[in-house]
Amino acid sequence: MPGPCDAGRVMMEMRADGGLAVCPDHGPFASLRERSLADALALLPAQEEAVRHCYGNTPCLYTCTYGITAISQHPLRHLLEHRKLMAGRPRD
Fold this sequence. Notes:
By secondary structure, the chain is mainly alpha-helical. It contains four helices and three strands, in the order E-E-E-H-H-H-H. Strands 1-2-3 form a three-stranded antiparallel beta sheet, with no helix packed on it. The protein is globular, with a radius of gyration of 14 Å. The termini are far apart. The model has no long low-confidence stretch (mean pLDDT about 80).
């Protein structure tokens, strides 16, 4: 079994609009246009429950957490999650 999700500890996503998110699948928890990096990082502990919930209830599509072993343990869940994500993306 893979270890716990490291979103917010090992990696974060900084978006072009200044939003800071613990993972590409999470909305921004702070805006670096509105507060300093130190103030934004002070908000990280409040994101832990959302990360735990996401990790326990959805297959992760990012190698920062699961890797290939987790996908191979739940191939149908992975396929369904991928289909759901792709359905919501605009087509080129």
